[in-house]
Amino acid sequence: MNIQKYISSGIVESYVLGLASDEERREFEKACEQYSEVLQARIAFETVLEKQAMENAIAPPADLKAKIFDQISEPGRVIPMQTVPVRKISWLKYAVAACVILLAGSLYMNITLSNENRKLKGNYDLTLAELDEVKKDIRILQENPNVKMASMKGMEVSPASYATVYWDTASHDVYLLANNLPVPASDKQYQLWALLDGQPIDLGMLDYNLKQKKLLVRMKNARNAHAFAITLEKKDRPNPSVPGGDMYVMGGL
Amino acid sequence: MNLNTTYSEQELVFLLQQRNEKAFSYLYDNYSGALYGIVNAVVTDRETANDVLQNVFVNIWRKIESYDPSKGRLFTWMLNIARNAAIDEVRSKGHNNSLKNVALPENNEIAGAVTGPAMDDVGLRKVLGKLKGELRILVDMSYFQGFTHEEISKALDIPLGTVKTRIRSALIQLRTMIQ
């Protein structure tokens, strides 16, 4: 291939401006890998184009940025709830609070499942099924006066994240409700920790797929804890009993 | 906190892929004007242009994973998202953009009028105005109106190969003009 001739054929401009055919694109991408001159020519034109576009920028209306931020953060919104020491609230209040959280989780799942009207019916049926599940789960918790709750709020890496731990202080059973956690990358998973005197104790990995089906996920038992937290960890890491990844949520009892 | 943070392109992409809102805010502050420029070169009215730009940024936020740095700079990727979104919007509204309505150019003056509804004094369009009649129409139809070379070949009754070579040569001229 005569590289100089190829570069000056207009292919560079055609590719960058998105006017090349699929075949031309494939050929050009290969040429960029093979010949640094082609790659340099591409970058040079991209830079010129960007500069030109920047010089001809038009300021959008001032309120547009806020609208965009509203739209991108919509699915992350969860009904805020106060953290109240569990011992002080009556069981009725607790049940109502749990219902609100579980419903919010359920609704959130609905919203993310689809925005399209034609799917609403399907979602509605799903919601009913989920509510049945939720009722069952709540009954388990309701019948047990030893259950404490920790609302875990989003940390800096993911302020919209939110999750709840239900901890049975008698049986030491731990249930996790992932109200709102972003879908992890395929090589990562969430891990729940109990924090005791600042020391993390592994309470197991959260199977995100299971979380989609079941709202309350049973984790490893905890004998004692002051607070709970969730980190996002690499799968199959060498030392799973020590947290290594970013902390997504944390909350005390 | 440093409010004047600047990011390298790599950092910006990395942070955006982490769904970092501060990085997204930076992206908006730096590039919304340039992208609004291209949207306004395609779309007729400001209302529509605002909606398109909003969708463009929401799509950038949602699709940042699909950005592949080996295939081009971040701005190029965003520019193409913006151009495509604007063209789609114009087409979906049937802004008398059917090829049937594109009059065959008899002379360059009339042909200039065909090039379209959007502002002629904006950015690339301004540069486009400097191209000679036919080349200008070809670039306008392919770049600003999104017609394929095949469609243009049929509409203007020019052989496909000729459409391709003329658009290429128009692009080369465009390049020298903006440099």
Summed up:
The complex is a heterodimer of chains A (253) and B (179). Chain A is an alpha+beta fold. Chain A has helices at residues 3-16, 22-34, 36-55, 64-73, 91-113, 120-142, 208-213, and strands spanning 147-154, 162-168, 174-180, 188-196, 199-206, 216-219, 227-234, 247-252.
Fold and architecture overview:
The complex is a heterodimer of chains A (253) and B (179). In chain A, helix 2 crosses helix 3 (36-55). Mean pLDDT of chain A is 81; it is low at 76-88. An eight-stranded antiparallel β-sheet of chain A has the order 5-4-7-8-1-2-3-6. Chain A is built from seven helices and eight strands, in the order H-H-H-H-H-H-E-E-E-E-E-H-E-E-E. Chain A is 43% helix and 23% strand. Chain A has helices at residues 3-16, 22-34, 36-55, 64-73, 91-113, 120-142, 208-213; strands at 147-154, 162-168, 174-180, 188-196, 199-206, 216-219, 227-234, 247-252. Chain B folds into two domains: 9-92, RNA polymerase sigma factor, region 2, helix turn helix motif (Rna Polymerase Sigma Factor, Chain: A); 99-178, Winged helix-like DNA-binding domain superfamily/Winged helix DNA-binding domain (Arc Repressor Mutant, subunit A). Chain B is built from nine helices and no strands. Chain B has helices at residues 9-17, 21-42, 46-63, 74-92, 108-114, 123-128, 133-144, 149-156, 160-178. In chain B, helix 3 (46-63) crosses helix 4, helix 7 (133-144) crosses helix 9 (160-178) and helix 8 crosses helix 9. The interface between A and B is large, with 42 and 49 residues.
Secondary structure layout plus pairing:
The complex is a heterodimer of chains A (253) and B (179).
Chain A: H1 3-16, H2 22-34, H3 36-55, H4 64-73, H5 91-113, H6 120-142, E1 147-154, E2 162-168, E3 174-180, E4 188-196, E5 199-206, H7 208-213, E6 216-219, E7 227-234, E8 247-252
Antiparallel strand pairs in A: 1-2, 1-8, 2-3, 3-6, 4-5, 4-7, 7-8
Chain B: H1 9-17, H2 21-42, H3 46-63, H4 74-92, H5 108-114, H6 123-128, H7 133-144, H8 149-156, H9 160-178
